[in-house]
Amino acid sequence: MKKKVLKFGGTSVGSIQRILHAAKIIKKEHDNGAKIIVVVSAMAGTTNNLIEHSKSISKKFNKRDLDVLLTSGEQVTSALISGALNDLGVKAKTWMNWQIPIITEGDHTNSRIINMSVDKINNYLSEGGVAVIPGFQGISKSGEITSIGRGGSDATAVAIAKIFQTESCEIYTDVDGVHSSDPNKIPLAKKIDKISYEEMLELSSLGAKVMQSSAVQAAMMNDIPIHVKSTFTNRKGTEIISEDNIDYRKAVTGVAYSKDDAKITLLGVADKPGVAADVFEPLSKNQINVDMVIQNISADGKKTDLTFTTKRQDSKNAVSLIESNKKIEYEKTHINDKVSKVSIVGAGMVTTPGITFKMFRSLAEEKINILAISTSEIKISVIIDENLTIDAVKKLHKTFNLD
Amino acid sequence: MKKKVLKFGGTSVGSIQRILHAAKIIKKEHDNGAKIIVVVSAMAGTTNNLIEHSKSISKKFNKRDLDVLLTSGEQVTSALISGALNDLGVKAKTWMNWQIPIITEGDHTNSRIINMSVDKINNYLSEGGVAVIPGFQGISKSGEITSIGRGGSDATAVAIAKIFQTESCEIYTDVDGVHSSDPNKIPLAKKIDKISYEEMLELSSLGAKVMQSSAVQAAMMNDIPIHVKSTFTNRKGTEIISEDNIDYRKAVTGVAYSKDDAKITLLGVADKPGVAADVFEPLSKNQINVDMVIQNISADGKKTDLTFTTKRQDSKNAVSLIESNKKIEYEKTHINDKVSKVSIVGAGMVTTPGITFKMFRSLAEEKINILAISTSEIKISVIIDENLTIDAVKKLHKTFNLD
């Protein structure tokens, strides 16, 4: 009999009606003979409300208490789902993380699942029961309540799929799969049937909210096939699988964009070893993530320009950290907060020549100026004027035949 | 250094502002040098909301899942109180019941605390820390989440006071103590400074909502002094203590009433052994509590009338159970749903002659007809017309010099 993980995200359990609906989906799979482990998120809105509460109490609410606070959300959903299943005549039981236990390591609010006991749950599955487990949380070796970061229920689902060696891991969400671009903004965006872990990672890190990156990464490392599908339709969703199992006819799989970037340029930086390190060290120490970095070769061997992007909210802080660091020699700084990042992603890109040229020409045709460029094996990203984002995405979507 | 339990009820932690206020009360006690264990209820409204959720999912939501669901409420408050204390610079830590552990026995939603480990918390108190514990819950010997019934946070507080041998157990609530009658309805009701466990039990069972009965009972059995006080004023509250420590100047301590009673009379019941058992057995089997029972001696030795009271919501069900029991011989049944129970309570009553007479004469002066009477060592209750309740309470309040 196949073992399955079914994970339901916050919007999929966001109301009593939706919980009842999710329970019916679980019952159907159970009636079809699968052994099921259900992983649930907190009801949509709950986690944000609890975070608001904590912020109202303290701007620096301590992380240990925050974990105790936030993990209550999934406890509620687990109990409601289990209750709904029992009401439908399906034998079901909730297991809190400390009851299993699910062991984590790492800091509060940012732990990783490292181990899990399987016997109790496997016995229960053998007896025909459905196990319902709150996602996003665990306990540390010393018995403290821990959480594994926002969106961590996906990571719980993948960890359970791995440890219980389930046949599949199904992520129920509020969209019917991964799309070639944001379907809310690009009406011609199409659902992708199959996508590789790597492409999914690039799309996630670029703002596709379908699945949490670290969970995709864990699935990739353990070759666990993921099936992302909508809780609200019966349509086939997107399979996230190994590149080897995908027949690439198109070089480009999707177009993604993010609109909360800022571009910072240091003009006239001394061109000598260690400068980049001096610039980025204080940013790293202050948890400011640097995304793209571009440094031109200096014409005279003495001075160069250094450009990088950060999240918009961090840009002012980044510049003041740099300006207060007397070690760095430069002429002046320049911030452009009105930029966005547009990327094309595709595992087939590496074997298809001319993709970069095609992308740049296509943007040029729309008179879109490229402010910075960064490339990887399966992704090309450009920084452009924020106001031109949707135009650029639409154009690229058409250029690469994704419509 | 004295050890104290401070328990905060639902309204005392019903908003972020109130949680911050409760944290300040705790800090003050901590700064005064007490070793403090805090017990918290769920934020006012939370438990009812969760119960509504469960009812929307299933009319017979299973009790195991209900315990998992409801206990999340106190987890939230514990985390917020601990976070607020840490923000005020007070070393504080939440301990979930499974982390301590607090062991219970009995059924889901209706368990009793039977044991608790003290070492971890005592060590923490010795280090100057404040331990914050969710009330109302525990874990069974087999590691299941259990709850100890509505209002169970009081029981948790008393159990902790007992097991940790604390000097006092302070119950912070939204009223400033126990009153001689309901202060919302009887403006002349006065706060009682000291009351015996027995009197408090009678008042609680008669509808005074200040403290949960089983918690008072546990305090009585272990002679733990309780101090009920308001979270919102600095006034001295009510001490609930052993009768031996109270100087009774007044025979009557308080007047209580309940308005959700119904009086059921079976007219012309055969006056033979076993009739009462036949009447009450099916009620007991159907969880219908019978409060007062009055049976007159029959005039002719053959037929008598049997009167009893139940909660109003149970009255129709009670009568239909009786009517469907062919074993019972009677002429007809009569329900009066428009009655209330008014009681005077006082440990001094037993040593003061004439209290009963004084009560009846006083009601007669107000032309209030007594429909049934029941007495105990420290209480006299009468059933009267519902519309006359407040008149009766006011009159008795005055008669026994409680104004």
Shape of chain A: globular
By oligomeric state, this entry counts as homodimer
CATH overall fold name of the largest domain in chain A: Carbamate kinase
Largest interface: A-B, 37 and 37 residues
Give me the number of helical elements of chain A: 12
- Compute the separation of the termini of chain A in Å: 40 Å
What is the count of β-strands of chain A?
Answer: 18
Examine the secondary-structure arrangement and name the CATH architecture of the largest domain in chain A.
Answer: 3-Layer(aba) Sandwich
Record the strand order, biggest sheet of chain A. 3-6-2-1-9-11-12-10
Q: How many strands, which pairing sense, and closed or not: the largest β-sheet of chain A?
A: 8 strands, mixed
* Fraction of residues in helix of chain A: 25-40%
Quickly describe the structure.
Two copies of one chain form a homodimer. By secondary structure, chain A is an alpha/beta fold.
Describe this structure in words.
- 2 copies of one chain form a homodimer.
- The relative contact order of chain A is 0.10.
- In chain A, a hairpin with a 7-residue loop joins β14 (290-295) and β15.
- In chain A, the strands form 3 sheets. Chain A has an 8-stranded mixed beta sheet with strand order 3-6-2-1-9-11-12-10, sandwiched between helices.
- Chain A folds into 2 domains: 3-174, Acetylglutamate kinase-like (Carbamate kinase); 255-399, VC0802-like (2-Layer Sandwich), CATH 3.30.2130.
- The first copy, chain A, is built from 12 helices and 18 strands.
- The first copy, chain A, has 403 residues and is of the alpha/beta class.
- The A-B interface holds A 16, 19-20, 50, 53-54, 56-58, 60-62, 64-66, 68-69, 71-73, 75-76, 78-80, 82-84, 86-87, 93-94, 96, 98-99, 143, 145 and B 16, 19-20, 50, 53-54, 56-58, 60-62, 64-66, 68-69, 71-73, 75-76, 78-80, 82-84, 86-87, 93-94, 96, 98-99, 143, 145.
